Amino acid sequence: MKGLTRLTAASLLAGVALGATIAGAAELSVVSGAVGNDLAEMRQQLDRFAAESGHTVDLVSMPASTTDQFGQYRLWLSAQNRDIDVYRTDVIWAPQLAEHFVDLTPHVGDVIGGHFPAIVESQTVDGKLVAMPMYTDAPALYYRTDLLEKHGKEPPKTWEEMAATAKEIMDKERAEGNAQLWGFVFQGAAYEGLTCNGLEWITSFGGGQIVEPDGTISVNNPQSVKALDTVRGWIGTIAPPGVLAYQEEDARGVWQTGNAVFMRNWPYAYALGNSDDSAVKGKFDATTLPIGEGGDRSAATLGGWNLAVSKYSPNQEAAIELVKFLAGEEAQKFRALTNSRLPTIQALYDDPEIVEQQPLIPRWKEVFLNAVPRPSAPTKADYNEVSSEFWTAVHNTLSGSGEAESNLRRLEARLKRLQGSGW
Description:
Oligomer: single chain
Order of helices and strands: EHEHEHHEEEEHHEHHHEHEEHHHHHHHH
Low-confidence stretches: 1-22
Mean pLDDT: 93
Number of helices: 18
Shape: globular
Largest sheet: 5 strands, mixed
Structural class: alpha/beta
Number of strands: 11
Strand order of the largest sheet: 2-1-3-11-6
Helix content: 40-55%
């Protein structure tokens, strides 16, 4: 038995229990962080894989914070840990962890063509496919259809409209006795999620992408200052002061109990918001994130999760089999229907069941196709430090520790030191 603490062990169906003893059966482990129902959904799929393949699969749970996940992954991989066979990886980690993962290119030629090419490219380093796309992600602006209709408002196109609508509805509803209602919740804690939010704000205001694709450091500019000053004005007015400690699930918790007019979050929150125990079931919808003053586009951070096989796994063949199963069309359809996760397989956006049961998904195809990537490609192995410096500057600004202009000036200097002679 492997030495790591497990979330749960796979239970094989009685009819195939003997399969684990057949020659070639492996005991695999997959490590994954999660928000919402991710782990429960994966557990269902792992049990099905075990029943079909004869392999057993243990699921190792990680904290929800992607920052914490990355730190642990890097420790395990640097130590050439043999206990983990498959890693669930963020879209931004491929350049940083590629040396530790098996090249999947020779093993997935029969299926990889069905995935969106840009997503495949994001997981390809030096010509090697180091992780198989599992699902993609791009955030939305969730809004309460019942409250907007009640107060005669339309879904906002700009951040200015969003803030004005949020404030008006919040004030009127509080006057009617809904004292817990806030206008807008998002991910404001100092972690990778704030890098995503911050990138969306400054890009939508026309402030660039922190570091441009050619490696140019662009974050210190008047539009970025304007973006952060604007968001700073939301804290304590339309957004609760506690939003500066919110991650995804914290924002969803406020939203799903009916205590927010607007929320920025990923598609997973759509299915959960329509669950039977949700106070907002049937009372909300989602639209593209707003455009900032001086900007000309909505900006949604490209997210998504992938599956990589460790070079140090003693069960690489079985691990590759598991990755192909979890990234396959049937598994992606199940994930879309049960967890509103966006498929990476193009054909699924026209699947009748997905269109009927998760209408957000086909509408979101154009959003993620035009999503903004975090600057992991140009900054390569330095991305984690770049992101940490960025989210720190943003959090300091939002919490009133320094002005946006001075914080971004210091950020630019720190990024230039990281850049050295060039990324």
